[in-house]
Amino acid sequence: MLRLLVASAHVPRVSGCGHGVHVSARFRGVPRSTRVVPEEHSPTWNETLAWPLGTRPLAPTDSLTLRLRHWGQPASQGDLGAATVSLDRLVADPGLLLTLGDIPLLDPQGQPTGCTASLRCSYTPRGGAGDAAAVPLPGQMPPPAAPSGSPPQPRSKAPAGSEEDFQVRVRVIEGRQLQGNDIRPVVTVLIGEHRFRTRIRAGNNPYYNEVFCQNFHLTPAQLAAQLIRIQVLHSRAIRAKAIIGGSQVRLGARARRRRCPAAPGRLSLPLPSPQLDVGTVYRAPGRCLSWKWLSLQHPQRPEAGTQGYLRLSLAVLRAGEALPEQEEPGKDEDVEANLLQPSPCAATLQLRIYRAEDLPQAVPGCRCLPLAVAGGGQRGFVAAAVRVTFGGRTLCTQMMPPNANPVWNEVFFFPLRLPPICDEIQLAILGGSCSSKVLGTASLDLSQISSAGAELEDGPPGFLPCFGPSFLPFYGPRPDAARAVGTNPPRGVAYRGRVLLELSTHMRPPDGRQRDSISPEDISRVQSHLPRRRFGLCGVFYSATMVPPGPELLRFELSLGNYGDSSDATCKPAASATQHGCALFDGNRYHYLPWFGDKPVVAVTSCWEDASHRWDALNLLCALCRRLERNVGELQNAPGDSKGTIGRRLLRQLAQDCRRALRQLAAQPTPTPLDAHLRASRLHLLRQVAAAAAAPPRAGWETLLPLAEGWLRRAAALAVEPQAAVPDVVLWLLGGGRRLACARVPATQVMFSPRGSAACGRLCGRVQTLFLVGSGGLCAQLRLQLWLGRVADSRDLARRLPGTLHVYAETYENQTKLLGRWGPRGLLGCPGFSDGAGTAGLPRHRIRPPRGWRWDGPWTVEPQWRLLLDAETNVSEVLEELYENQSRRPGGRSGAEMPPKEELECPQGWHITDGWRLDMAGAVDEAGCSPCPHTQQSRGGAAGTEGWEYGSLWGCRFHLRPRPGDVCRRRRWHRSLVPLRPSPLAPLFTLEDPVAHVSFVHVSRSSRALPGTLDPLWDQTLLLHRVQLYGDPRRVRDEPPAVVVEIFDQEGGGASGFLGRSVCAPEVWLDVGRRRPPRLRRYPLWGPRGAAGELLAAFELLHDTEDGSLAEVSTPPGKDEVLSVPADIRPLLRLVALEVLAWGLRGLPGSVRAPSLEVQCGGQTLLTPPIPDPATNPNFPINAFLLLLRLPAEEEFVPPIRLRVLDSRGFGYRPEVGQGCVRNLRQFCCQPHGQGHSRGEEQPPSPSPPAPGARTALPTLASPWARIAQMLPRIITKKAAAKAVEEEDDEDEEEEDWWSKFYSATGDKAKSHRRSTRDRLKVYSCELEAVPEFEGLQDFCRTFPLYQPGHHPVPGEEPVPVGEFKGLFHIYPMPEAPEVPPPPRRFQQLPPSRPQRCLVRVYIVRAFDLPPRDRNGLCDPYVRVSLGSTTLGQRDQYVPNTLEPVFGRLFEVTGTIPLEKDLRVSLMDYDLLPPDQEIGTTTIDLENRLLSRFRAHCGLPTRYHTTGPGCWRDQLPPSRALEHFARAQGLPVPEFNAEGTAVTFGDSTFLLSHFESAPPGHPPPGVPRERLALHLLHSCHLVPEHLETRTLYSSTQPGLEQGKVQMWVDIFPASLGPPGPPVDITPRKPQRFELRCVVWNTREVDLRDISWGGQRMSDIYVTGWLDGLEEQRQRTDIHYRSLRGDAAFNWRLVFSFQYLPAEQLCVLPRKEHFWSLDETVLKVPPKLILQVWDNDKFSADDFLGVLELELTRLPRPAQSPRDCTPEPQGNPRSSWPWQGAKAPPRLNLFRHRRARGWWPCTVQDGAQRRLSGKLELSLELLTAKEAEERPAGKGRKEPNLHPTLPEPLRPDWSFLWLQAPLRSLRYSLWQRHRCRLSLALALLLLLALLLAFVYAAPGYLAMKLVNPIPSLQRAAGEPQGQAVGKP
C-alpha cells in the first residue's frame, strides 16, 4: 500500500474568482484527488490518498505525479503547477516516512509557477499487516539479484511472520455536540480484549484528555485483526438506553476474521457499532492518527445520523520506531477537514455464488473433514461452504453435502461506500462439520475490478465494481504437504478448487437484506458464458540441481488444477510426472538428477473455459510494459548525446506495440461487464499513448523521460486480469511418498496464442529457472520449458522443442536369487513386472498402446542409467591411464602392478574407441619421459547383452556389476511408440501413461577457506569447464541460468554452517571475440535470519564454439592451484592513509584486565598498546595511529574496518572479548590536512563527486572568522528591523522567570509574561545528539558498539553490545611518488586523556505521553537520576495521578568522566508498597558532550546577564570562553580593544555595532567585551541555551517508546573553577480566580406545563456550575408561572477556582474515592455550564435548555434578545466566500474580565438541537485579591455589592394560587379570556333582557287590550263625584 498525505500548499497569487483548489495525484496511471477547499494563500487538506499495490511491489523507477488545480476549470486554465516525486527512497527503506516540504510546482514548460506543496509519503509492502516484507510463494524465490551499487538496506526489525512488541495508544481528548439533554457521558475504549473507561463528565461538550495503552506481542498479521471499539455512554441512563454513539477502528487494513458467522463465538456476530474502515491506524503515515474527530453513530438507529463528535489520537508503536511528534491543531480548526468519518453507504454490492469445482478430497483421520454426512453426498469428499468477508461484515453460505462440485446458488448483499475504502473482498472455502477448517482462500481487489475514473484529467471513465460470471481459483495448504512445506505463504501453495462468482454493484442504498437465492433465469444465463475447450500443458525438464540428498527416489510432478495431480481421483491419469531418479553427488557440494542428453517431458491435458481474449489482451499489455520499461531504463542512464536515438527507438517501438494491441482490443469480445470496462479503459489509454508517440516531444528529448514513465505507470495499472479463471501451474518435487517442495507459475505467463508472439505469455516456450521452496528453504533449482495452449494449437509446440520427441513404454522384470539360481519366485511382495519404484505391476503382455498409437519395434532391454550407482555408469566416455615405470636402480618400482597395456581387457558393456597414446602435455623431456610417465586410452560405453541391474534388497539402489551379497536383480524393458497417422496436433497430448527420460550432469565448485575473518577476500576465479546447456544459444543469452552462491562456515554443508545465499545472473557472450571483462558487482546475501551481508563477484558465461575461440581467452594467473581474479576485473587500488584516533574503551566486563584494540582494514592490521588499568583510566596511553593502505578507488569496493578487542592475560593468553565492524567509510574520507577546510569540501578517494545530502561538519576552525564575516551582512540587515522592536519593548527583567522564556520559545505568547524575544531559548523536539547540525556530538570521537564474538542474535532482535570503542577515523589520499613529502597528520592537538572531576546539573522540566501504570489509567511519576554509583531522587517527591507531570526539579551530582560517563534519567511510578515500577529511562553520554567542539557541556544564552533569573551560569565569561575555544581549536587568541567594542580574530576585525544596536537609554545588559565575545561564540554555531526532548524506553519492553521528558544538562569541569548560580525552574503555581455570574432575565424559554385552565406556563429556575466542579452547583430562585417564557432573577452565582494561565486550564485537585491516598489533579478548560429547568412539585423537574460558555473562547453576547441567535450546530461554518461571512471572533474572559449580554440556550429535539430560550447574563472574572477587595454574596445575600442586585420586578401573576385565589382567577381567566368573557357578559345581558321582555310582553299586551287604567279611573271618579254632589 502506498499512502500520500497531502498536507498543504502555497499559492502566491489568489485569483479571487471563487474557484476552489484541489490536488490530484496519479500513481501507475491510477488517479486520486483530494477534496476541494476554498482558494487562499495557504490551503490546507491534511488528507490521505492510498493506492493498493496488489502483487506488484514498489519499484525504484516508480514515481508519483501530483498537480494543483482549480476546480471546475479546463485543464489548460486551471493548472497551478505539477511536480513528480521519485519513490526510490521508499523502496530502499520501506519503513521511511518521506516528508517533503514546499515542493516547487512547475508549468508544462518546466518553469516554476511559484506554488509549492507539502506532503508525506509512506510505503508498506504487501504481506502480513502491512509493514513486514511479503512472503514469497514457493517457486517465486527472488530473481537473480541485480547489482547493488547503493549502500545495503537497513536491517529489518524482524522477519516476516514473527512476533514483535507493539503498543496501541488511544487518547480520548474531548467530545463535541453529543446528543442528549442533561447527560453525563463516559467513553469506553475496547482495545483487543481489554476494556478501558474514562471518567464521567457532564455536559454535551465534555473534556477528557485521558490516555489508554495496551501492549501486544503478536505478529503484524495478528495485530491487524485486533479491533479498537469506542462507545460513548450516558452514565445515568439504564443500560439499554445508555448508548449515545460509537464507532470501531481496525488496527490493520486487511484484518481477517477467523470464524464463520454460523459458528458460535463473539467474533462471529455482527458488531453493534458501525465499521470505520478509513485510513487504518497501522498504515497511516507515522502509524498514528492525531487529533482526529470521530463521527459517532447510534448502532440501533444508523438512520438517525451523527450523534456527536469525539476527538481522538490513535497510535500504534512498533519496537524500534519512534512516535512522531503530534502537533495540536488550532482551536478554530475546521472539524470537517479533520474528520475521521466513513463516507455514506450509497451503493449495494451483490455477490452471487453459484457453484464450485474440483474441491479436495477428505483426508482419513481428520475429524473436521468427515467422509459422509447425514444428508447424503459423495463419499470421499467433504461438506463445504463459502465464507465472504468485506467491510467488516462476514457472511457464509449453507453447508452442502460432500461433493466435488457443490452448488449453492446464493447471493450476498454488502453495503458499499463510495469511494470504496476497504479494498479487498476475502473469500474462503470451509470444509467439515465444525465449519472451521479452511480449505482454500482467495481475494478480489476492488482496485482491479473498479475504477474511480479520471474524466477531469482526460482519463478513462470510471466504473463500479463488477466481476464475472467467472471462476475464481482458491489456494491453500495440502494435508500431505503440510509437514514438508513449512513456509506457508498467505495465499497457500496448492490448488484447492474454483468457485463460480458474479459480482455487481447497484447505485441504491442497502435495503437491509443480507442474503437471498439466485433466480433460475440467472443460473441459465451464466451457463451460456462458460464454453470449454481442451488445453494441453507440456513441460520439458533440462536440469535439476541442489536437490535434497537421500536414498529415496525423486521425481517432479506438473499439474494444472487437479489435472496431473497423481493424488486426485477425479481426473484421468496423465503423463504429468517424470520418472524416478536418484540424487547424485556432483563431487563438490550439491546433488543433482542425472538426465544426460535426453530430457524428461511431461504432458497434461485438461478442459477449461476459453478466455483467450482476456489472456491475449493481458499478455499484449505486459509485453508493451516490459519493452517500455527496458527502454525507459536505457533512457535514464543514457548520456545527453544519445538520448535522441534512444528516444526515437522508444517512440517507434511504443507505437508498434500500441497498434498491435489496438487491433486485438478492437476485435475483443466482451462477455462480461468487467471485460467491457477494461476494454474501454485500455483502448482509451492506448489511443492516447499512440497519439503521443507519433511525434517527438516538442520541448526536447529531456522531457520524454517523465512522459514515458507516466505511460508506463498507466499501462501497468491496466495490465491485470482478475477473470483469468485458469489456476496456476504448480510444480512439485516428490520423494519417498512425500511432497518436499513446490513452485507456482501463473498460467497466463506460459499461455500460447495463435495471434502472435506478443500475445503469448512471457514464459511460453522459453527456458526458465525455477526455485522450489520447501520446509528448509531452497530445495531444488530447476531449469525447464513450459507450454500451455489449446490442443488445437499444439502444432506450435513441435517448433519450440529443441530436439526430437521420443515416446516409449517401459517395465521392469524382477528376479530373486534362491539357492544360487535366479528366478521370478520369492519376490517378497514385489511383482514380476513393475514400474521403476517396484510398486505397480506392469506385465509386458498386458501393456497395450494408447488409442491412436502403435508399437515401433519389439521390446528391448536397456538399463536405466539414472538409477545405477557404479562409478562409470553415468559416464559416456572414460579415459584409461597406465604408467610405464623405468628406473636406473634395480628392483625399484612404484604403484600397483598391472599387466602390459596390450593385455588389458575392456570391461563388460564397454568398447575401445581409441588406441594408446603417449601423454606429452605433462612435465616431460623431449622423449616423453617423466618421473611417472603414463599412457592413455579412451573407451566408450555400451549396454550389456542382458542388462541386469543388481541390488541387495528391494527398494535399495541398484548397480550394474554383480556383487557377492546381491539377492535381487531387475532389467528394464522398453518399447517405442509412434502415432498411427500424422496429425496437426502434438501427439503427446493423446497419451495417458508416463514417459521415460535420461540424464545431464551439473557441476559446482568451491572456493578456498579463509580462516578467522568476517570479510573474506578470496581473490579467486572459479572455472566450470564444458557445462552442457541444451537448446538454442540465443535463448541462453536472453535467459541465462542462474548462478547460486552459498557461503558456509569452515566448509560445513549443514544448516549450522550455512551463512547466506545469493542468486546471480551471469553475463553471456556467444561471440567470445566481442567479450568485455565483467564488472564486479555487489549481490545481497540472504541467510536463515534475513539479510546476511553482500557478495562482491562477477559472473560470465562463455560459449564454447567449434572454432576454438574460447582458447583465446587468457587463463587467470594462479598460485598453488588457485586462480586469482584477472587484472582487468579487479578494482584499481590507490595509496591512502588511515588515521586512527583510539581514544578509549567503555563498558567492558569487569573481568577484562588490560585490553588492547586491533584494527583490520585492507589486509593491514594495527594493534594499540594495552590500557594498563581500565578501572582508573579507560583511555589508551597513545591515541593517534597511522596505517598506509591500498584501497579500491571506487567506493563500492572499499572493505569495512574490523575492530577486535583483545585482553592480555597470563602466559600470553589473549582472548577476544569484543568485535565490531565499521562500514560506509565514505563518511571518514577527507582531504589531506591543509587542503580542505571542511568535510563538505573533502573528496573521497574516488573521482565521483560527493553524494548529495552529505553531512557538513563544523569547520576545521582554520578560519572561523571567515564564516563570521559572511554572516555580517545578514546580521546588519536584521539589526535595523530589531531596532524598532527593541525601542517599543520596555522589558522588566526582574518580573520574568524561566517559564516565560520557555513558553515564548514554544510559540505560545499567551502563556509567557514576556513582551520581548531578545533572550531566547531553543527547544529541540529530539535529543541534543539527534540534532543534525551537531553531528551527534561525535565530532571529536565516535562511539562504535562492540559485540560478543561468535554470538548469533535471535531473529528479529538486535544484538546486545558488550562494550564500546571511542575513536575516530580519517582516510585521505597519499602521494604515490616517494619524493613528495606526506601531508601533516590530522590528529595532532588532542585534549588530555586523563579523567576529569565534573559537577553535573540535571534540569528536569516536564514529561508527557507517559503510559498509564495504575488501574485508574494514570501513574504517579517521580524522577531518579543516576551517575555511576550515585542516585538522586526521593520516592515521596512524586506527582500524583497524571500522565503529563510538570517536575521543575534540579539535581546536582558530581562524577568523574569518563569513568562515570553515562547519566541515567529514569521516571518511576510510585506505589504504596515498593518496589516501584519503572516507566522509562534515557541515557546521556556526558563524555561526548564534554569533548565535543560544539561546546555542548553548557548552552550559550542569547544575552549576557549578571543578575536576575537569566544570570550567566557558565564557569567562564564569554571572553574567556572564546579564548578557551580558540586554543582548543589551534587558533590564535582573539585580541580586544580597551573598550571591548572591537576584536581582532585571525585576519578580521569585528565591531560590536555589527551585531547589536540599542536605543538611547536602553543599553543591553553586560559589558561590551563580554557581549561581543558572546556574539562571536554564537556565530560559530555552538550549542545554544536549549531544552531537549528525550525519549524514554523501558527494559521490559525494549524498543517501545514510553513517553518523553524535556530536560537539559550542564557539565562543569572542576579544573575551570566554580560555576554560576543554577536556574530556578520551579513550576508556576495555579492562581485562584472568582467568577461572578449574574443571571438577570430569560426570554422565550420553552413552556412545558399546562395549568388547570389549559394555559401553557413554566416555573423557571437556572442552575450553573463550572465544568469539573459539579459539587459547586448553584441555582437561582424560582420564577413561578411564567406565561411567555420570560423570567427575572437578579441572582448572582459565585464560583471560585484555580486557574493555570500558562496552560489555560483549570486545576481541580480532588480525590477520586474516599480511599484514595492522593488527590488527582485534573486539568480541564474553564467552562461555565448553565441549565434552565422547569420546577415541578410532584415529579422530576423538566429540562428546558443548556448553555455552555468556554471562558477562554467566549462567544460575543448579543445586546438585545432579538439579536440573540444560536450558532449553527454540526460542522463549523464553511469558509467559502459566497456562503456568508465567517463567525465573529470570540473573546477571552481572562483578558477582558467582563462581559454582559444575551446568550442562547439550546435543547436536543430529536436529531437536531434547537433554540429553547435566551439568557441575559453578566460575567465578571476577578483574582483572589480583587475578590477580597470587592466582596459579593451569592444570590442577593449580603454583602449585596458590586453590583447591588435589587429584587426582581415580576408580574402579579407570578405567585402561588393558594395565596390569592381571586387574583389567580383574575390572571388565569380574565387575562387569557378577556374578549370571550366580555362577549359572554353582553350576550347574557341581552338574553336577560329578552327573557324579561318575553316574560312581560303578555301582561303588557293584555293591559293594552283591556286598558284597565281608564276603567279604574272611571271607577274611582264616580264615588268621588257622588260624595261631592250630596248636600
Spatial order of the strands forming the largest sheet: 29-33-34-35-36-28-32
* Count of helical regions: 21
Mass-distribution shape = globular
Structural class: mainly beta
Distance between the termini: 152 Å
How many strands, which pairing sense, and closed or not: the largest β-sheet? 7 strands, antiparallel
**What is the gyration radius calculated from CA atoms?**
46 Å
Percentage of residues in helical conformation: 10-25%
Low-confidence stretches are 127-157, 253-279, 364-377, 484-491, 869-874, 921-945, 992-1001, 1052-1056, 1236-1265, 1272-1295, 1769-1781, 1920-1927
Total DSSP E strands: 86
Strand content: 25-35%
Mean pLDDT: 78
| Multimeric status of the protein | single chain
Summarize the structure.
Helix content is 13%, strand content 34%. The protein has 1927 residues and is mainly beta. The strands form 21 sheets. It has a 7-stranded antiparallel sheet with strand order 29-33-34-35-36-28-32, with no helix packed on it. Strands 37, 38, 39, 40, 45 and 46 form a 6-stranded antiparallel sheet that branches.
Q: Describe it for me?
A:
The longest helix is centred in the C-terminal third of the chain and has 33 residues. The chain contains 21 helices and 86 strands. It is globular. It has a seven-stranded antiparallel β-sheet with strand order 29-33-34-35-36-28-32, with no helix packed on it. Strands 37, 38, 39, 40, 45 and 46 form a six-stranded antiparallel β-sheet that branches. The protein has 1927 residues and is mainly beta. It starts with a strand and ends with a helix. Helix 6 packs antiparallel against helix 7, helix 6 packs antiparallel against helix 9 and helix 15 packs across helix 16.
